[in-house]
Design a protein that fits this description.
alpha+beta; 3 domains; Heat Shock Protein 90; disordered C terminus; five-stranded mixed beta sheet; 13 helices; 64% helix
């Protein structure tokens, strides 16, 4: 079919637009399908047939003045164009499942504008302000409220609809004066109709705004619950593993200590026992760190404003009193969605990366932080420096626990960064070359809720 080819074109041209259809997108698509496809297409088809008959095959308009005859001719020509455009839009609406959501929304907007203009033209030749088509303007406003999901776009289109009705009425009055016809000077009726249309526009806008707020609150509540359950499960698992490993390590340590006190001959064997105890203590420290993840069950996730959290981390690593010479640049996109995380985890991510950058680059170098919207309702955070960069060999090892190039480093900073990113379903990538600086790219999903719902079971 024709829309199969169109869908194939859009998927090849803009493949990322179809990668992530979240719950909200499906809700919008379902609303468009119900209003425009299931209800709108049959009603529009009947109206086009009825209007075609009355405009071309009936004598419903006769004995009109010259100016009105010209207006009627223009309306008839407009009807032909309007019919063909509606047929094309109807075909695309019928195949909407195979087209990107943004394109379906564009079609709905085009249909709304076409209906608004054609209804205004019909009003001009059916009585102006006194036309019975006034009631269709009310239905058009309600239809726009149901089909156009964005409140700002909706109120804009509906306001233009009210203006078109007013312009059609004023044009009818002007024609009547030119043709020396009697003009109905009942301004109360005219004002009342405008008030009714304006009130309906504002009511639909207010209802849509309240509906959006309630929907966002429900989505955030579900997101909060799922994130919290994920972190609690991770914390319980870490605590259980650490507990199971600590018991045998304790027994080994006690046995080695007893053996060391008992064996009095041979220096070599006592050194070996000492080595065993040192490694047990080292393993115990690692497990203690692992038990720290059990605190995940105690913490609380919350919606974080990423740019604000990035600024706070900058203040921690580069306090004004320290007077660091590095040049800091910020580039934050507006209106970014919030990310549900524990505040401490995100802060730990940013502080570790920024501290590494501060210690690795010389003075007067640049550090640039950016935050932008990514694919699939995610947020991209990048930290880029103009320092000496890293070799590929070093790049392959930086996330390994206890690997460090610093004299007093623990080798845990970037390992913790990767863990904190991945525990929230995020991704971490590093780009670096010697002499060209280093760039950390972090992607955080704003909604793990969507990811979980896709998984079977």
């Amino acid at each position: 079919m024709s829309f199969d080819l169109l869908a194939s074109f859009f998927k090849k041209r803009w493949p990322h637009l179809e990668k992530n259809r979240d719950v909200e997108s499906k809700r919008i698509a379902s609303r468009i399908k119900t209003v425009e496809c299931d209800f709108g297409l049959p009603v529009k088809a009947c109206l086009l047939i009825l209007l075609g008959y009355y405009l071309f095959f009936s004598n419903w308009v006769h004995d009109v003045a010259n100016t009105r005859e010209v207006a009627l001719t223009i309306v008839r020509q407009f009807f032909i164009i309007y019919s063909f455009l509606n047929i094309g839009c109807g075909i695309m609406i019928a195949g909407m499942k195979q087209l990107p959501l943004w394109f379906n929304q564009l079609i709905v907007l085009a249909i709304s504008v076409l209906d608004m203009l054609f209804l205004s033209a019909l009003t001009l030749v059916t009585g102006g302000f006194q036309s019975l088509l006034f009631w269709l303007f009310l239905l058009l406003i309600v239809r726009n409220a149901l089909s156009i999901y964005a409140p700002t776009t909706q109120i804009t289109v509906n306001t233009l609809t009210v203006i078109c009705f007013m312009m059609a009425g004023l044009t009818d009055v002007a024609i009547a004066r030119v043709e020396l016809e009697s003009v109905n000077t009942n301004t109360d009726s005219f004002v009342l109709r405008l008030v009714i249309l304006g009130t309906m526009t504002l009511w639909c806008y207010g209802f849509q705004t309240l509906f959006d707020k309630q929907r966002r609150a429900e989505d955030e509540s579900r997101e909060f619950k799922i994130r919290q359950e994920q972190l609690q499960a991770t914390g319980r698992l870490a605590a259980e593993i650490a507990h199971q490993l600590k018991n045998p390590l304790g027994i080994i340590n006690n046995a080695a200590f007893t053996l060391q006190r008992t064996v009095k001959e041979g220096k070599t064997i006592t050194q070996q026992i000492h080595l065993i105890r040192e490694e047990v203590h080292r393993s115990d420290r690692i497990i203690t760190d692992l038990m720290g993840f059990a605190q995940l069950a105690e913490g609380s996730v919350e919606p974080l404003n990423i740019p604000e959290e990035m600024d706070q981390a900058l203040e921690q690593v580069f306090p004004e009193a320290a007077n660091f010479k590095m040049k800091i640049e910020r580039d934050y996109a507006p209106a970014l969605p919030k990310v549900f995380m524990q505040r401490g985890h995100f802060n730990e991510i940013m502080v570790n990366i920024l501290q590494n950058a501060r210690e690795a680059i010389p003075e007067n170098c640049k550090i640039k932080l950016t935050a932008s919207a990514g694919e699939g309702y995610s947020i991209l955070v990048t930290i880029e420096d103009s320092g000496p960069g890293m070799s590929q060999e070093l790049l392959d090892q930086i996330f390994e626990p206890y690997f460090t190039t610093k004299e007093k480093g623990t080798g845990l900073g970037l390992a913790i960064v990767r863990h904190n990113v991945e525990i929230y379903g995020g991704h971490l990538k590093v780009e670096s070359q010697l002499g060209e600086g280093t760039k950390f790219i972090l992607q955080f999903p704003a909604r793990t809720l969507i990811k979980l719902q896709r998984n079977p079971g």
